[in-house]
Every structure is written in structure tokens, then in C-alpha cells.
């Protein structure tokens, strides 16, 4: 078993991004990310804090816009329109999830596709499904980069994606398909899940259930990517039971220190890629 060290890979990419930023700043361009945070969800607060921290470390400017549940969708959408029109804003991020009183899909739809650095908008998702990759969602992109770093060939491999969310499962499946993998997507209604996952060459899990995938769910030598982050008694656990699965897997990501660090760094990579267009 070999551990895929997402933290180290993210740090290596961070240094590369710093070099790119120096080049942009020499041209008078400061990559800027606007973050819209609605409500007071503790997890969202933490995620935003971490994103801002890493942006500061690299040198990306961040602008945080806070809204409460007393604000209207109209007010949020008007702010998005203002940010769309501002040529110095490279990325707009709507921190998910929004409080249930808001129509999240509707709000995200107002983000300019060229500034949709999360890659959640219908334009970028549609382009991905058409094998015309524009801005790719950060978590799937981070997973792809980790597999590339480990020289994993995807062509002809059977990849099983457990979880079908718009944030991870669906874009991840499309990325794998675009690279010649045979892909099975499972969800909470899938029957005989264990039978399906045990045939996977590459198993990616994003379901939000701590230690759900145990060793009897995978075949010997499988590559296992754990996207889950579950907090129990102040400790973090993945969706995969690392202790048992690591004995059978050939490659596996830990939690924490696996997919998480790569997600944030890929988001910032997307911001810088958008800023580069201003330099041309």
C-alpha cells in the first residue's frame, strides 16, 4: 500500500502558483476572488476561513460578502451581477450549502461562467459533459491531479464513483469518461453496492458516512480515493475505513491530508487561470 499525500502535492502546487502570481503581479494583475457567504453555518464559516487563509499565503486577494437569511435572493443576485461586471474580479464563489430558504441553483446560475471558479454552473458542467473542459470543479480536478501525479493510467480502467452529487460525483465521472475509463456511478438507491465496488480498479467515495467502505467492498490492489470528511468527537474520519481498506489497496488517500488540501489549491489554481486571461 502506498499513501497518496495530498498535503504534500498541494504544497508543491502552491509553490508553482506563487511563481505564476509573481509573473501576473509584474504585469499589474492581482488575481481576486469574491466569496459570497450566506447564513452562519459553522462548517461553511470554517471552509471560507481556510480558503481565505490559503489565498493570503499565495497572494490572491479575497473579498468576502456576507448575507443573512433576512436578505433576499434579489440582493444576493444583484451583488453577483455587480461582481460579474467588475473586470478586476477573476472568480466568484458561492459558499455551499446555502440556507434552505434560498434557491441555490438559481443563485449560482447568475455567476458569469467565465468567473465560475467552483465549476458548478450549468455552462461549465455542460462543457465538461461534452468533453470540452473549461473550468472544472475543484475536488474532481484535485483527484485527477493526484492520480496523474501517481502515474495512474485511466484508459480502460473500471472506475466506480460512490456518490452522485453535482459537486463531486457527476463531474468526477465525466472527467474519468473523458480519459477513457469505464465508469459506474452509485447512489443511495444502488442495489448490491458491495458487488459493484469490489470490481473497481479505482474507487472514489463521496457519501458523507464515516468509515462506510470497509475492506470487503474493494478488490485486492484497488486504488481508493476518499473524499469524505466526517467530524466525530473532534476527530476527522473519511468515508473509508482506512485501517482495513489500506491493507488491500495499492494506493489510498488519508483523511485528513488527502483530497481536502488539493480541493482548496485547485480552486485557487482556477482563479489564477482566469486571471491569466486578463494578461493576454
Notable characteristics:
280 residues, alpha/beta, Rossmann fold, 2 domains, six-stranded parallel beta sheet, three-stranded parallel beta sheet, globular
Concise overview:
This protein is of the alpha/beta class and 280 residues long.
Describe the structure.
It is a single chain. Helix content is 41%, strand content 16%. The chain is built from ten helices and eleven strands. Strand 9 and strand 10 form a beta hairpin. The chain has two domains: 88 residues, Leucine Dehydrogenase, chain A, domain 1 (Rossmann fold, 3-Layer(aba) Sandwich), CATH 3.40.50; 123 residues, NAD(P)-binding Rossmann-like Domain (Rossmann fold, 3-Layer(aba) Sandwich), CATH 3.40.50.720. The protein is globular and about 50 Å long. Helix 1 packs parallel to helix 10, helix 6 packs across helix 7 and helix 6 crosses helix 10. The termini are far apart. The strands form three sheets. The chain has a six-stranded parallel β-sheet with strand order 1-11-8-7-5-6. Strands 3-2-4 form a three-stranded parallel β-sheet, with helices on both faces. By secondary structure, it is an alpha/beta fold.
Write down the oligomeric state: single chain
Q: What string gives the helices and strands in order?
A: EHEHEHEHHHEHEHEEEEHEH
Q: Give the rounded overall mean pLDDT.
A: 96
Shape by Cα distribution? globular
Termini gap? 45 Å
Q: Which percent range fits the helix content?
A: 40-55%
Poorly predicted runs:
none
The whole-angstrom Rg is 19 Å
Number of domains: 2
List the helices and strands and how they pair.
Elements: E1 2-3, H1 6-26, E2 32-38, H2 42-58, E3 61-67, H3 73-85, E4 91-94, H4 104-109, H5 122-129, H6 138-149, E5 158-162, H7 169-178, E6 182-186, H8 193-197, E7 202-205, E8 223-226, E9 230-232, E10 235-237, H9 242-245, E11 251-252, H10 259-278
Parallel strand pairs: 1-11, 2-3, 2-4, 5-6, 5-7, 7-8, 8-11
Antiparallel strand pairs: 9-10
Helix pairs in contact: 1-10, 6-7, 6-10
Amino acid at each position: 500500500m502506498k499513501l497518496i499525500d495530498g498535503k504534500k502535492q498541494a504544497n508543491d502546487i502552491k509553490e508553482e502558483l506563487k511563481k505564476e502570481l509573481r509573473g501576473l503581479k509584474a504585469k499589474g494583475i492581482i488575481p481576486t476572488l469574491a466569496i459570497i457567504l450566506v447564513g452562519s453555518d459553522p462548517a461553511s464559516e470554517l471552509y471560507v476561513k481556510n480558503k481565505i487563509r490559503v489565498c493570503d499565503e499565495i497572494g490572491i486577494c479575497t473579498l468576502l460578502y456576507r448575507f443573512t437569511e433576512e436578505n433576499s435572493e434579489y440582493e444576493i443576485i444583484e451583488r453577483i451581477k455587480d461582481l460579474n461586471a467588475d473586470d478586476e474580479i477573476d472568480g466568484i464563489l458561492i459558499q455551499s450549502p446555502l440556507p434552505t430558504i434560498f434557491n441555490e441553483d438559481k443563485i449560482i446560475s447568475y455567476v458569469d461562467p467565465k468567473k465560475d471558479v467552483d465549476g458548478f454552473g450549468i455552462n461549465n458542467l455542460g462543457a465538461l459533459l461534452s468533453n470540452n473542459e473549461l473550468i472544472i470543479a475543484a475536488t474532481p480536478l484535485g483527484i485527477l491531479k493526484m492520480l496523474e501525479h501517481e502515474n495512474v493510467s485511466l484508459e480502460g480502467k473500471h472506475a466506480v464513483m460512490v456518490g452522485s452529487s453535482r459537486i463531486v460525483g457527476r463531474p468526477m465521472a465525466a472527467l474519468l469518461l473523458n480519459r477513457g475509463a469505464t465508469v459506474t456511478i452509485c447512489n443511495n438507491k444502488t442495489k448490491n453496492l458491495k458487488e459493484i465496488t469490489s470490481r473497481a480498479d479505482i474507487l472514489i467515495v463521496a457519501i458523507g458516512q464515516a468509515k462506510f467502505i470497509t475492506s470487503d467492498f474493494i478488490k485486492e490492489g484497488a486504488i481508493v480515493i476518499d473524499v469524505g470528511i466526517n467530524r466525530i468527537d473532534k476527530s476527522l474520519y473519511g468515508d473509508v475505513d482506512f485501517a482495513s481498506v489500506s491493507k488491500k489497496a495499492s494506493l489510498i488517500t488519508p483523511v485528513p491530508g488527502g483530497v481536502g488540501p488539493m480541493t482548496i489549491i485547485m480552486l485557487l489554481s482556477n482563479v489564477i487561470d482566469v486571471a491569466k486571461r486578463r494578461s493576454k
